[in-house]
Amino acid sequence: MESVIASLLQPITDELNVDILKVSLGGGGRSQLVRVVVDCAGGIDSDGLERISRGLALQLDAEDLIKGAYRLEVTSPGLDWPLQSEADFNRYKGEWVRVSFEDGRSLEGRNLGPADDTGGNAFKLLIPGERKAASEREIVVDMADVNRVVRAINWKEVSQKSKK
After folding, report:
1. Which end of the chain is more exposed for a tag (fewer CB within 10 A), N or C?
2. How many CA atoms, within 13 angstroms, populate the side-chain half-sphere of residue 114?
3. CA 10 from centre of chain
4. Alpha helices in 22-111 (DSSP H)
5. What are the φ and ψ backbone dihedral angles of 48, each rounded to 5 degrees?
């Protein structure tokens, strides 16, 4: 059912240049919950979410796919949404991320996108210098070594902007 809903959603998201991250159907009782997570480079605004919600609601009602009442939730991912695919690393290129490794280490830096010639199995990360005099360095992170990658807030950058 999720794939059918995604196929109804695809023309709407294509028109808005938005990626479908997840479609899920769940809940019980009197109504089912149709949850759709979408995003695009630079983020999606509330107007885009509303257009997607209205368009999908019209499609679902016309197709009468879900018997009985349903609730539709169209949302964007939070900062804790895991980056896993090449598309994810392209979508959030330039953003600050936190990498948690399988061995328990963690690292933060700027996502520079997928590493070339790895088929999406690695991405480039720009790590800030440890001290004032130290310069930034670029590393390649192999996804096989990673437990989780999520977007994060660079508090140092935020505090510098607020001082200006």
Report:
1. C
2. 15
3. 17
4. 46-63, 86-91
5. -65, -45
Three-state secondary-structure class, residue 22: strand
The one-character DSSP state at 145 is G
Q: What is the rounded CA–CA span in Å between residue 83 and residue 88? A: 5
Kindly report, residue by residue over 116-148, the tens digit of the pLDDT: 876 668 999 999 877 665 688 899 999 999 999
**Distance of CA 103 to CAs 67, 96, 121, 147, 160, Å?**
47, 21, 18, 8, 32
The domains of the chain, with CATH numbers, are 2-75 (3.30.300.70), 86-163 (2.30.30.100)
Write out the two tokens for 146.
């990673």
List, as own/partner pairs, every contact residues 26-30 make where C-beta atoms lie below 8 angstroms and the sequence separation is at least 24, other chains included: 27/71, 30/68, 30/69
What is the reported pTM? 0.81
CA nearest 22: which of 3, 8, 42, 40? 3
Q: What is the pLDDT of residue 18?
A: 95
74-102 per-position pLDDT tens digit: 999 988 999 999 999 999 999 999 999 99
The secondary structure of the chain in percent helix, strand, coil, rounded to multiples of 5, reads 30, 35, 35
